[in-house]
Design a protein that fits this description.
Elements lengths: L3 E5 L11 E3 L2 E4 L5 E5 L11 E4 L8 E11 L3 E10 L18 H4 L3 E10 L3 H5 L2 E7 L3 E7 L12 E8 L2 E6 L2 E7 L13 E7 L3 E11 L6
Antiparallel strand pairs: 1-15, 2-5, 3-4, 4-15, 5-14, 6-11, 6-15, 7-8, 7-14, 8-9, 9-10, 11-12, 12-13
Length: 224
């Protein structure tokens, strides 16, 4: 693959070497794919949710793609990207505030990141009308929204290929090559456009989902 920066099949425990789990998450590979789920009672609310961070850092101008298999809902799936600490710090710098899964520790703390929620099935309003939402942090800034074509887990026919493309603040989001939204960060809201940093998978309990074939390649839009 041209301009390949990172490739991980997410097919066995050894593929998670260096990954970092925050919150009460557990990983398994019953189908040769990474299965993520929470060990906590969903009644614990935000304390039951999890984030799994990839150890690699990536610069600007990338496409992040992976296979997604929703297995059990309700719940919600998110990808964090261009995630770093405020003030130029590494995401795992010792001076960063503790993170244990609750969402506000990621969207309104000392983490700078974009995050796209692409399987929103937690609340009745989300199940009634499916959307994919892009937010920018710090702050809970909803900056773009598009339709979510994924069916409920009961009717799903995975894998679904999910792709996030980002270049100089331009963010495109697609599932199975269908672009769902495009947005250009104009250095607001939430401060300057983001570059570099890490990627992480987030789930809200009790969602159970599987992930495979994580790939990061260089990307730039055809026209600027």
């Amino acid at each position: 693959m041209a301009d390949l920066l990172y490739q991980n099949p997410l097919g066995s425990p050894s593929d998670l070497e260096g990954f970092s789990m925050e919150g009460p998450g557990v990983t398994s590979f019953p189908q040769g794919r990474l299965r993520l789920e929470s060990t906590a009672d969903p009644a614990a609310g935000q304390a039951a949710n999890l984030v799994l961070w990839c150890p690699e850092e990536f610069g600007d101008g990338i496409e992040i793609s992976w296979d997604f298999h929703p297995l059990h809902e309700p719940g919600l799936a998110i990808l964090f990207f261009h995630a770093a600490g405020s003030g130029g710090r590494d995401l795992f710098d010792a001076s960063m505030a503790a993170r244990t899964g609750p969402y506000d520790q990621y969207h309104s703390s000392d983490v700078e990141t974009y995050h796209v929620s692409y399987f929103r099935r937690m609340w009745p309003t989300e199940r009634r009308f499916h959307t994919c939402n892009l937010r920018k942090s710090p702050g809970f800034h909803l900056v773009a929204q598009g339709a979510d074509p994924l069916p409920a887990a009961l009717d799903a026919d995975p894998p679904y290929r999910v792709a996030v493309r980002v270049f100089d603040g331009r963010v495109d989001f697609a599932i199975d090559d269908l672009t769902l939204f495009s947005w250009q960060d104009a250095d607001a809201p939430g401060g300057p456009r983001l570059r570099g940093g890490r990627i992480g998978f987030r789930q809200m309990a009790p969602l159970v989902a599987e992930y495979a074939n994580l790939t990061v390649t260089r990307w730039a839009p055809a026209q600027r």
